[in-house]
Amino acid sequence: MYKRGLCALCLLTTVGMSVSAQQIRTSYFMQSSTARTTMNPVYRPERGYVSIPVLGAVGASYGTNGIAVDNFIYPKNGETVTFMDNSVNTESFLNGLKDENQVNMDFGTQVLSGGWYAGKGFWTVDVSIKGLANIRAPKTLFEFMTFAWYGHLKLQEMKWIDNWPLFGVILFSWSIALFEYKNS
Fold first, then answer.
1. What Å distances lie between residue 43 and 35, 111, 113, 128, 133, CA to CA?
2. Helix, strand or coil for residue 122?
3. DSSP 8-class letter at 51
4. SS3 159
């Protein structure tokens, strides 16, 4: 179920990006397009306009430097697991990453937009919501995470941390990983 939802989200995002890109390229050359004014204020529309709230212009995009969802999520006996699962080969996971991993996402929509002629000028008002997220994670971060996680699992197997509070387990696991990380 989770995998289907993730695939649907990726498909919608990809379709949305291509539709948005095509709309922008086409809109620029259409004389009656209001989007033309947004891209180049010199091109005023022939008449005033009001956009439909939220549906007036919606755009979403994402880009990576080569990493993808399947670098982090794996199938296992009909279920979906992350790279932190015991069944996932750590070396193959880490080999699938770049030294510097990057994901960029943005979203934007017009809440309200309108334009009208007043005197000799054309007036435009646009209230929009925009969001931008950039994630940069070096490969060493994931090496650090996997070492700490597998160290924690080994301690559980040896029954050393059965009565420890979660906070103590986390500090101990990460201190081992940090020590190992600094020595590598």
1. 10, 22, 17, 21, 31
2. strand
3. P
4. coil
